[in-house]
Amino acid sequence: MSTAIIGTVLIAAAAFWLSFTALTDLARRSGVDEGQAWAWPLIVDGLIVVATVAVVALDGQRAAWYPWLLLMAGTAVSVTANALHATVAADADVPALLAACVAAVPPLVLLASTHLTVVLVRSHRIVPEPTVEAEATEVQASAQAVVSAGTVPGPVGRRELAARLREERWSNKSIARHLHVAPSTVGRWFAKTEALGAPAVQDTAPDPRETPKELTA
Exposed (0-12), middle (13-18) or buried (19+): which is 25, by Cβ within 10 Å? Predict the structure, then answer.
């Protein structure tokens, strides 16, 4: 991945340099002062680079139309200016169309390589994976939400959960309040379990969830 990024950056730099020198000479031939001619290609080709980065950054958003417009305009100006410079500066024995096609390559390559570089950099970002503690917390929160909402699937599911809570030494009242059922219902569940010969856990320890009134009841 790093090799691809370095390669595209080097290609973009070479394309920018070729376009830069051609547009600088064209600006100088067009009457721009020699000390300021370098700024014209920097504006034109710099717009291509900035607009390409903005297009990738705003991908899928409504505001992306504006950088797309700037990108197309900057590319059109750069390609046209490079082609015009080639027709003016090329040797007399070179066809104007051929010179224009050759000169149009650097700005197009600049556009493509800049866009590719931005895409590669974005894809190279490492997305942090959730930690084991975060996953466990999320699962526990989901399970708690299901129980609190009273959406445990069916009576059998509630009985199994009641049995697990009983093994954790919850009282019948606390289990009934947690599962939104009557305490007598929880008592019948455990009475049936004990009648079938399953070991029962003694409900001796008071549950901190119970109010003082419930503890004395």
Answer: middle
